[in-house]
Amino acid sequence: MDYDAVVVGAGPAGLMAARKIASKGFSVLILEKEKDLGTRACAEAVSFSAFETAEIPPSPSLISNTINGAYVFPPDETKGVKISGGDYRGYILNKQQFLYALASQAVSAGADLKMRSEVKDVKMEGGRAKSLVYSHKGEDKDITFKYLVGADGVGSRIAKSCGFDLSGFEIIPTIQYVMVNCKVPEKDIIRIYMGNEVAPLGYVWIFAKNEYVANVGIGVRGKPAKTYLDKFIASHPDIFGGSKVVKEGGGGVPVGGQISEIVKGNVVLCGDSAGQVIPITGGGIRTSMGAGSIAGACIAEALESGDSRALTKYPASYGEYWGVRIGRSLKVLRALEELGDDDLNLLGSMMSGDDIVDLANGLNVKRVVAKFSRHPILAMKIASKIL
Ligand SMILES: Cc1cc2nc3c(=O)[nH]c(=O)nc-3n(C[C@H](O)[C@H](O)[C@H](O)COP(=O)(O)OP(=O)(O)OC[C@H]3O[C@@H](n4cnc5c(N)ncnc54)[C@H](O)[C@@H]3O)c2cc1C
């Protein structure tokens, strides 16, 4: 056996999983196909508690900006709701440095990390993964392990090769620009724009990273994301007049909720590969780290005890907190998908900042929805679907 565990993907999920396994003294190899960490587009927003989940201090070198609230704009932008203070504060990370920090923790715990190593195939035997083939600088290599972690994001090769049931896995396509010289009015307040003209079945975000740079992106379903983002930028010259795009990226964000099966034999899926993202916000950094952390601890327990049944604790434990939140947020997303712009404007005028944050994150949903139950249209379109 080459390694006790192999982790595929050095994103937030994989790096946490590897750290947890290595910290118990087991041998772990992380395989990452890219030549650098953090190359994938990301708006980089997290709540303060992301650092607790990451189990590292919020060092200034890992943070681009501190966020004190959000503006959420319904189609009628004059009805924007400001959310500020309390629990709504967070950071725009320097995600690449953040991932370097997570990698540093994993390596210092004893994990081995190989970049430019793309997993091509997994060999299965009797329902268990026995070995895998990865390509490193044009050369194919075989490797054996006791446990395998598929933390390889959207389109996971591990999920497909190991025969996971991916029905219900749904992504929203996104495009993000890194822009310079934007005139974002309050740089410590993130801005979210909704509406069928602005971003059908999705939203536009403007997250300032500092006084010079902002992450500006869009997620939409069934329409061309770039066309809508360019239209949004052109229609907001007060913010974007004189600004320029310096980097363009994007990718799919899972919004269909967690898939039904996240453990199969000696293989676990964590993070985007398992659909572990809050569906309304598309936030997956913290949920993925949480998954990696729990799955890694369960693998370490299985290795310690010699009993692979310890892996069944992963879905149960993840479901208790994260699974419930993902499920509730998905329910709210499904109800919001039915709303036209007039309904969204009405909703915007009735909701407080607390309501928006709770709904998006799947918290206190009953309290918020009870508020709409008194309104005939919203009662029918939202309350009845969520409660
Ligand atoms: C445009 C955009 C904006 C976003 N903004 C936010 C945000 O503001 N806040 C937030 O919380 N979340 C955000 N997200 C979501 C967040 O980025 C992801 O949910 C999170 O990164 C998932 O972590 P992960 O470790 O599961 O997967 P990933 O971060 O995708 O990491 C997977 C890793 O696996 C590697 N890999 C893939 N296939 C292979 C293979 N075959 N062999 C070896 N390596 C492989 C990839 O190169 C990658 O490094 C955003 C996503 C997008 C696309």
Question: Please, how many helices?
Answer: 12
From the alpha carbons, calculate the radius of gyration and give it in angstroms: 21 Å
Order of helices and strands: EHEEHEEEEHEEEEHEEEEHHEEEHHHHHH
Global mean pLDDT: 93
- β-strand amount: 25-35%
Label the overall shape: globular
CATH topology of the largest domain: FAD/NAD(P)-binding domain
How many structural domains are formed by the residues?
3
> What percent of residues adopt helix (DSSP H or I)?
25-40%
Taking the sheet with the most strands, its summary is:
8 strands, mixed
Per CATH, the superfamily of the largest domain is FAD/NAD(P)-binding domain
Hetero groups in this structure are: flavin-adenine dinucleotide
Number of strands: 18
Give the helices and strands, then pairings.
Blueprint lengths: L2 E6 L3 H11 L5 E4 L13 E3 L2 H5 L8 E5 L1 E5 L7 E4 L5 E4 L1 H14 L3 E3 L2 E9 L2 E9 L2 E12 L6 H5 L9 E10 L8 E5 L9 E6 L4 E7 L5 H10 L2 H4 L3 E11 L8 E2 L2 E3 L15 H21 L7 H24 L4 H10 L2 H9 L3 H8 L3 H11 L1
Parallel strand pairs: 1-2, 1-11, 2-8, 5-13, 11-18
Antiparallel strand pairs: 3-7, 4-7, 5-6, 9-10, 10-11, 12-15, 12-16, 13-14, 14-15, 17-18
The structure holds flavin-adenine dinucleotide.
Flavin-adenine dinucleotide (FAD) binds next to helix 1, strand 3, strand 9, strand 12 and strand 16.
